[in-house]
Design a protein that fits this description.
CATH superfamily: Vaccinia Virus protein VP39
Structural class: alpha/beta
Order of helices and strands: HEHEHEHEEHEHHEHHEE
Number of strands: 9
Distance between the termini: 30 Å
CATH architecture: 3-Layer(aba) Sandwich
Number of domains: 1
Shape: globular
Strand content: 25-35%
CATH class: Alpha Beta
Largest sheet: 9 strands, mixed
Amino acid sequence: MGTNFYNKVAKKFGSYHTDAKYTKEYSNGDPEQAFKEKLLELSGEDKVVLDIGCADGRFTLSIAPNFQKIIAIDLSTGMLEAAKRNQKEQKVDNVSFEEQDASKTSYSDSTFDVVYSRRGPTPFNEFRRLLKLGGYFVGINIGEKDCVEIKKIFGRGQGFDEWDTSRLETDRQKLEKEGFEVIFAQNYFYEEYYASYEDLDLFLQGVPIFEDFDSEKDRKHLEEYVAKFKIEKGIKFPRHRVVIVAKKS
């Protein structure tokens, strides 16, 4: 995913957030909640943490009181500016927002107790270098079955035509190859229901499912999707997340 997309979103909406209206229904639990719980199980006032792909920083600022220090990195200058504005408003002083490439950071070996990625990049070899022995990686990422039907209608999209390759198993194998012990790994499937065509359109403007989404050029595709998946609850939008916890051993 390019930084240009996130800069565009930050400029348009002021952060990584739109006002699209939708509800959620979970079949096997809320993956974001599971991710947060796993992360906070590793908290401590002596823990130094690295956030990979922090975007507008809202999540990291919300958990910052649970750690000694969090360094939060991103390549989008627009998102980092939004994060620093949020930090100033919230008066959080133990988070440092920095422009860094996750695959080749400037930090020293064995610097961090925990590295986490919340739908951000996952260069596991760099995570291994950065973590202390016994340190943890905690991740939530997009599963291969995420919003497949709309990608099929559009004929493109994030992870297009990769829906038969398990993200969970691929990440597990990569982590184990890097010398991590995977101690938790689970798929989460859930549904979002968008209140209207306009809400789904707005949502798609602010997420990288289609980095090149255009409300006018993609109108025909979106109308086809809405016509097919609109039910009483709203416009059905199936989601898939993967949550993993691994220990550097």
